[in-house]
Design goal:
By secondary structure, this protein is mainly alpha-helical. Helices cover 75% and strands 0% of the residues. It starts with 10 loop residues before the first helix and ends with a helix.
Length: 194
C-alpha cells in the first residue's frame, strides 16, 4: 500500500487554522508569551478544542505562528516578481522583511519559550530567506536592473540592521529612507560596471 501523508484540511478547518495563526501572531507580539490560549481561540472565533486539534501545545502554536510568518515572507518574493519588475519587487519585499522582523521581535519572549522547551523555530529560516533573496536578485540581474555581484546574505544582514531602526514607530520614516538607500546600492549602473 503506498504511503500517504496527512490528509489535506477541509476548507473550514484551513480557515480556522489560518485565523488562529493570524490571531496568535498578534497576541504573542502584543501581549507576550503568557496570553491565554482561551483568549486566542476566542479572538479567532473558534472553541478551545479547535485550537488544540490544530496545535496540541502552546509551543506548537507559537512555532507554527512564527513559521507561517516566515512562509508568507518567503512566498511573497515569487508573488511580487509576478506582479512587478524585479527591482520594484525587491524593494517591496524589503518592506515585508522589515514587517516580519518587527513581528519576530514582538514574539521574542514567546519564541524563547519554544526554544527552552527543546523546539527550534528558526530551523531552516536562513536557508529560506537566502532562497527568497536569491530569487529576487537573480531576477533583477537577468533584467539588468540589479547588480549581479550581490550576496544574498549581505542583503539579509543589511535588512536586519534597518529592521532595528524600524522597531521604533518614530523612526519608520528613517527606516524607509534607509531601505531606499539600500535598494539604490543594489541597482545596476552601467557606469559602475566598467
Amino acid at each position: 500500500m503506498p504511503a500517504t501523508g496527512p490528509r489535506p484540511l477541509r476548507a473550514d478547518a484551513r480557515r480556522n487554522r489560518d485565523r488562529l495563526l493570524e490571531v496568535a501572531v498578534r497576541a504573542f507580539s502584543q501581549d507576550g508569551p503568557d496570553v491565554t490560549l482561551d483568549a486566542i481561540a476566542k479572538a479567532a472565533g473558534v472553541g478551545i478544542g479547535t485550537l488544540y486539534r490544530h496545535f496540541p501545545t502552546r509551543e506548537a502554536l507559537i512555532e507554527a505562528a512564527y513559521r507561517n510568518e516566515l512562509t508568507k515572507l518567503c512566498d511573497a518574493a515569487a508573488e511580487l516578481l509576478r506582479a512587478m519588475p524585479p527591482d520594484e519587487a525587491t524593494r517591496t519585499w524589503m518592506d515585508h522583511f522589515v514587517d516580519y522582523m518587527t513581528t519576530k521581535r514582538g514574539m521574542a519572549d514567546a519564541l524563547r519559550a519554544v526554544i527552552a522547551s527543546g523546539g527550534n523555530p528558526y530551523e531552516q529560516s536562513l536557508d529560506r530567506l537566502n532562497a527568497a533573496v536569491s530569487m529576487l536578485l537573480d531576477a533583477g540581474a537577468a533584467a539588468g536592473t540589479v547588480r549581479a555581484d550581490i550576496e544574498p546574505g549581505d542583503v539579509i544582514a543589511s535588512l536586519g540592521g534597518v529592521s532595528l531602526t524600524a522597531g521604533e514607530p518614530a523612526k519608520r520614516d528613517q527606516a524607509r529612507r534607509m531601505l531606499d538607500l539600500l535598494m539604490d546600492g543594489l541597482r545596476y549602473r552601467a557606469a559602475a560596471a566598467r
